[in-house]
Task: inverse folding
C-alpha cells in the first residue's frame, strides 16, 4: 500500500504511522489540534493544549506490555522516553512490606515498565515521528468525511476530505482518533450499514493532584498502588522526572465527593486516610510540593 492516511496524532496514531513508514509506506498523519509540539517535557506539561485528547493531564501509567512492544518495535522511541525522564519502574522490587519476600526469578524483567505522564509521552512520540522518513504530520487539519467509490454496490473508502475541502486519496485510512471518533457517522453518511456501538458509563469520578519531591526522592507505596478506603479508593502512580500523581476516586453518584475539587478538602481527605494507604516520599528533606504545570496547580477531575 503506497499511500496511507492516519487520522489522529496521539500515541497510537503516531506509533502506527512510524511502523507503517518503516515498512516503506508513504504515510500522512492528520491531526485536528493545531498546537505545535513543544521542545521540552516541561513545556509540554505546562503549555501544550491537546483539546482532542480526553484526560490529557489525568493520571497516566504505562503497563509493562507497552515497554515490551517498544523494545521489539520502536527501541529508539523507548530510548527517547528514557532520555526525556520516563521512569523505569519495577513493580516487584517496589512490592509493599506487607507481602512476603519475593525470590527473584529469571523472567522478572517482564514486569518492568517505562512510564511517564501523558503529555511527556506524547511529546516524545511526536518528536520521534517528525524525524521519520516517509512520514508527514499535518496539524490543525480536521477531517469532515470519507471519500469513497462504489465497488459492486458497496462503498469503498479511498481517502478523506478535510473541512477546508481538500481531498487526500489513500490505499488505506487508519482511524486513530480515539473514543470520540466520528467514524460511525462518516460510514453512515456514505451509505454503509450503521455500526452497532455499545457504551456504558463506569460510574466513577476521580480527582488528581501531581507532586514532585524537593530532593528528587520518589514516593514509596506503604502498601499497594491502589487501595480501597471505605467508599473511596486512593491511587498513587509514579511518573517521569521525579513526579507522581495521587488520585481519589469513587462513585459518581456520591455527590459529597464533588467537594474534592477544593484542594484543601482534597488534602484533608488524603490526610485522614489510614497511613498504610498514603504515599510516602523517602529521603532527607522529603517535603512533597505540587509539581509545575496546569495539571498540578489545580485539581483534575473526570467522570466516567
Result:
Amino acid at each position: 500500500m503506497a499511500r496511507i492516511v492516519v487520522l489522529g496524532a496521539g500515541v497510537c496514531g503516531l506509533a502506527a504511522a512510524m511502523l507503517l513508514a518503516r515498512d516503506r509506506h508513504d504515510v500522512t498523519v492528520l491531526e485536528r489540534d493545531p498546537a505545535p509540539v513543544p521542545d521540552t517535557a516541561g513545556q509540554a506539561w505546562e503549555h501544550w493544549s491537546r483539546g482532542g485528547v480526553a484526560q490529557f493531564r489525568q493520571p497516566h501509567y504505562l503497563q509493562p506490555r507497552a515497554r515490551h512492544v517498544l523494545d521489539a518495535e520502536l527501541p529508539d522511541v523507548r530510548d527517547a522516553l528514557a532520555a526525556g525522564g520516563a521512569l523505569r519502574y519495577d513493580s516487584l522490587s517496589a512490592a509493599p512490606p506487607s507481602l512476603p519476600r519475593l525470590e527473584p526469578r529469571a523472567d522478572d524483567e517482564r514486569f518492568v515498565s517505562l512510564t511517564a505522564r501523558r503529555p511527556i509521552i506524547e511529546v516524545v512520540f511526536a518528536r520521534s515521528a517528525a524525524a521519520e522518513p516517509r512520514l508527514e504530520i499535518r496539524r490543525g487539519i480536521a477531517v469532515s468525511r470519507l471519500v469513497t467509490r462504489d465497488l459492486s454496490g458497496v462503498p469503498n473508502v479511498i481517502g478523506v476530505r478535510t473541512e477546508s475541502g481538500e481531498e487526500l486519496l489513500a490505499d488505506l485510512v487508519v482511524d486513530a482518533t480515539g473514543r470520540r471518533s466520528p467514524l460511525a457517522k462518516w460510514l453512515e453518511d456514505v451509505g454503509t450499514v450503521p455500526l452497532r456501538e455499545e457504551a456504558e458509563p463506569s460510574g466513577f469520578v476521580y480527582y488528581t493532584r501531581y507532586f514532585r519531591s524537593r530532593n528528587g526522592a520518589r514516593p514509596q507505596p506503604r502498601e499497594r498502588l491502589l487501595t480501597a478506603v471505605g467508599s473511596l479508593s486512593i491511587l498513587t502512580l509514579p511518573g517521569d522526572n521525579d513526579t507522581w500523581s495521587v488520585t481519589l476516586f469513587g462513585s459518581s453518584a456520591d455527590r459529597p465527593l464533588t467537594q474534592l475539587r477544593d484542594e484543601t478538602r482534597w488534602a484533608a481527605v488524603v490526610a485522614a486516610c489510614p497511613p498504610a494507604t498514603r504515599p510516602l516520599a523517602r529521603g532527607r528533606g522529603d517535603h512533597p510540593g505540587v509539581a509545575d504545570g496546569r495539571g498540578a496547580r489545580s485539581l483534575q477531575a473526570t467522570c466516567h
About this structure: The helical segments are 11-22, 41-47, 64-73, 75-83, 118-130, 183-189, 263-272, 294-297. The chain has two domains: 1-60+117-199, 204-303. Residues 281-304 have pLDDT under 50 and may be disordered. The two ends are 39 Å apart (CA to CA).
